[in-house]
Amino acid sequence: MAQVSKKLGLFERVRAVCHSESIPIPGVVVVGDQSSGKSSLLENISGIRFPRSQTTCTRMPCVLQLLSDPTVGEPFAEVSMDPSFADATKCSVLDVEEQIKKATTKHATGNQITKEALYVRVVRREGPQLSLIDLPGITHNADKMEDIHEVTAGLAEEYIKREEMVVLCVEPAMSDFGNAEALKLAKKYDPDGSRTLGVVTKCDDAANAEECDLAEKVGMVRESDVRLALGYHCVVNPSQNDVNEGRSREDHLAKERTVFTESERMRKIPKENWGIEASRG
C-alpha cells in the first residue's frame, strides 16, 4: 500500500490511503477497546454527535457515510437498517444522535451487542467524503453480557480480516500497544501493517503524565515497539465536559495544538503525526 504523504491530518491520511488503493466503500473500520475513544474520534472527524452514555454507547456496527453535494441547501441525514437505505428515516444532522439511540434501543435490547449494522448517511454541501464503520469496543467486563468479549472481539476480527478494509486501530496514549487486542488482531491479518493506521487518543493524558514514552511508541524506534507501515497519528478528542459546555471546534483545535506544542515531551512527536485536521506549515 502506498505510503501516506506527510503533513496531513487524520482524515486526509485515511482518504489518501483509500484513494491510492482504490478501496471500495465501505473501506475503513474503526476498532479498539471499550472507552478507547472510538466514537469520539468519529465525532471529531465527521462533526456528527454520537451517543456517549454507558447505556447507549456503540452496541451495534454503525456504517457512517459522509457525502458532499454542492446542490444541497440544508445538510441532512438518513438513518436505516438497510444498506440501500430503503425506508430510511430522514432527519437533520442534529438529530442523528437521537436516531442512533432509538435504533440501538430497538435492535440491541437489554444492553446486548448485535452484529446487525445501522447505516447513517450524511449529505452536506461540502466536507469530507468517506465511509467509516464504528464497531462496539472490545470488552472484557461481562456484567451485562456473559460472552461479551467473545462477541466484541469476534466482530472486530470479522471486519479486520477483510482485505479491502483499511483498519483504524484506536489506542489511548497511555496504553501498552504491545498488549492491545485491536492491534494484535490487526497484525494477525495485516502482518506488516500496510492497511492499518494506529490512531492514538487521549494524548492530553500523556502530556500530563509523570512518565510517558508516547514519542517512542509513535516513532517506532525501539525493537519492542509495534510497527505499522502506515504508522500512528495522535489526536485529542473533545472531553465530555467540552461537549457539555458547548465548546466550538475552533476552541478544541486550539486546545489540541496546545497539547502538542507546549510540552517538551509532546514536541518530540513530528508535526505530521498529530492533529485531527491537516497540519499547517
From TrEMBL:
Every Dynamin-type G domain range: 22-281
Keyword tags: GTP-binding, Nucleotide-binding
Any GO MF annotation of the entry: microtubule binding
Pfam families per UniProt: Dynamin_M, Dynamin_N
InterPro entries cross-referenced by the UniProt entry: Dynamin (IPR022812), Dynamin_GTPase (IPR001401), Dynamin_N (IPR045063), Dynamin_stalk (IPR000375), G_DYNAMIN_dom (IPR030381), P-loop_NTPase (IPR027417)
GO cellular component: cytoplasm; membrane; microtubule
Source species, domain of life: Eukaryota
Keyword Cell inner membrane included in the entry's annotation: no
SMART domains listed in its UniProt record: DYNc
PANTHER family given in the database record: DYNAMIN (PTHR11566), DYNAMIN RELATED PROTEIN 1, ISOFORM A (PTHR11566:SF21)
Protein name, entry field: Interferon-induced GTP-binding protein Mx1 (Interferon-regulated resistance GTP-binding protein MxA) (Myxoma resistance protein 1) (Myxovirus resistance protein 1)
Naturally occurring in which organism (per UniProt): Cladocopium goreaui
Source taxonomy: Eukaryota, Sar, Alveolata, Dinophyceae, Suessiales
